[in-house]
Amino acid sequence: MPELLLELFSEEIPARLQRRAAEDLKKAVTDALVEKGLVYESAGAFATPRRLALTVTGLPAASPDTREERKGPKVGAPQQALDGFLRAAGLSSIDQAKVQSDEKKGDFYVAVIEKKGAPAIDILRDILPATVKTFPWGKPMRWGAGRLEWVRPLRAITATFGPEGEEPDVIEFELGAVTSGNTTYGHRFMAPGAIKVRRFDDYVQALEKARVVLDIDRRKQIIRTDAEQLAFAQGLELIVDEGLLEEVAGLVEWPVVMMGSFDETFLKVPEEVIIATIRANQKCFCLRDSATGKLANKFILTSNIVAEDDGKTIVAGNERVIRARLSDAKFFYETDLETPLLDNLPKLEDVVFHAKLGTQAERVSRIEKLAAEIAPLVGADVEDAKRAAKLSKADLPTGMVGEFPELQGLMGRYYALAQGERPQVATAIEEHYKPLGPSDRVPTEPVAISVALADKLDILTGFWAIDEKPTGSKDPYALRRAALGVIRLIVDNKLRLSLSRFVSDGDLLSFFHDRLKVSLRDSGARHDLVDAVISSDTDDILQIVSRVAALSSLLAAEDGKALLAGYKRAANILTAEEKKDGRAYADPIDAGRLSTPEEQSLGTAIAQARTDVTARLENDDYAGAISVLASLRTPVDAFFESVLVNDPDPAIRANRLNLLASLRDTMHLVADFSKVAG
């Protein structure tokens, strides 16, 4: 079957856009093909710095013939309705429609629309230019005198279509000054000449000969493998950085990996600073000594050319730039060390955190007060927590953080330790931003926990107070991340903390509930069990998590499943009878009217269970409360097997309904079982 090959050849596409652009191209073209009736077997998209490429295999030579019956107005309908029907159906006269009869609706018109299939190449001739013109680049550009917009100037288009074993046809169309053809180009420097291609297989081979590796994942693998081998030969280990690897693979079409070095004296600077400097300025990878684990004074660079001098000039150029950048970093570091962190605090008065929430200095004051309040609850020293909170943002005015904002907190720890602060204070300065995401480490040291919680709670309560809440997919202040950070700090450290002590806004507490639901569901918890244990005023995160785990264990066992079935039966009976009687059943049970052994046994079991459950919940023994409920399974089963709830005697009937209500209410002490599926 025929195959499509499309390549859009341009000036260099930003590395961060390439992978997404390739997927967007595949989706746009394949969606349009399917819409036109052209189903296909497979599709693949690729990107290099100078091209987006797409192959679609197993396409038919033409779209299928179609036949559609379109229902119209009733016979005798107004002319206006008939005219609209004719236009929509593409008919010139109502005589071209047929009449169908319906026993209920009478006679009505039906248009039979038959369309002959079109050659696939004609369909592609429409689809491909439309795809390019509407491509979702965030910020496209124009060039020259043309009106075409693309991420960078578009230089050539390769578009061929045809079956294997035959010479494919060129899909002819024009976009601005560019006319489609079957010609592409190789590596900008090593093989810049024109290359005539036919279909995808020979296209890939031709590019390879012209020093272009089409697949970005293969380029990544080449870089990683060659870098690891170079490092291993020197007794070193590559510090793998997936984000940098993706970026570097998007900067080269023919990756050539080399090793450079820098002066050992720079190793006196914190290694994170060295790594950030080399990464940001030269897109190079750092290395560690395999024996000691310490940072080595060497780095890995990736070139886009095979140099005649084996890369000596390229390496020397990178070493020269890195030496200059590391000199700057060393200067920033040494200068920052000369200024005590406390002396930076007045500078925070000139830094606005948010127009409605004041300056960073005002925010630090709030965090300090909040951290002091949280500290005793998490086992932290109050004075250490206050000191860490006071200094938590003191590294923001430093030269190093100004150069590398991603090092905030970390540099604060280095400066604090160098200036004699207590280790737990320094650790809290670094870790109070954590966790920044689901895979980030959670602080475990009490002082760090108190400041991290204070920082996030201040953000959340502050933005809720000014009504700046996340809406839909928009969350410009990362408030969802802050709430999940609070949840992880509490859960991972097993903290019993009442959020209502710090969160007075009911909407914000609901927001925490929503974030907790997401977190629990992501970890595999059943959504109905989460809903069953959360109420609008539940403010103990750890308790909710424990309840979900215990409830899950109960319902995984046979006793739990049977008890849930008994609960559902009792609840359904109560709902039906309360609706019929126009009243609720919640009166005390009259023991004298429990006439059968089964209802007597259930009454005794419920009374004992209520006492035991209440006592266990007061002692935060939720698992124990769950086990008490499990013991109700046998008397509940026996009751429903032997007792008629709707006894002819109204008093006995009412007493038995009150008994079921007591069962329901006792189980609700633990969770709202009405929300549990099953």
Automatic annotation (TrEMBL):
All residue ranges annotated as the DALR anticodon binding domain in the record: 565-668
Subcellular locations according to the entry: Cytoplasm
Name of the top EC class for this enzyme: ligase
GO molecular function, one term: glycine-tRNA ligase activity
A family per Pfam: tRNA_synt_2f
InterPro entries for the chain: DALR_anticod-bd (IPR008909), Gly-tRNA-synth_bsu (IPR015944), Gly-tRNA-synth_heterodimer (IPR006194)
Keyword Nucleotide-binding: yes
PROSITE patterns: AA_TRNA_LIGASE_II_GLYAB (PS50861)
Catalytic activity: tRNA(Gly) + glycine + ATP = glycyl-tRNA(Gly) + AMP + diphosphate
EC numbers for this chain: 6.1.1.14
Keyword annotations of the record: Aminoacyl-tRNA synthetase, ATP-binding, Cytoplasm, Ligase, Nucleotide-binding, Protein biosynthesis
Assigned protein family: Belongs to the class-II aminoacyl-tRNA synthetase family.
Alphabetical list of HAMAP family matching this protein: Gly_tRNA_synth_beta
Oligomeric and partner information: Tetramer of two alpha and two beta subunits.
PANTHER family referenced in this protein's UniProt entry, alphabetically: GLYCINE--TRNA LIGASE, CHLOROPLASTIC_MITOCHONDRIAL 2 (PTHR30075:SF2), GLYCYL-TRNA SYNTHETASE (PTHR30075)
Protein name (record): Glycine--tRNA ligase beta subunit
Species of the source: Pelagibacterium flavum
Gene field: glyS
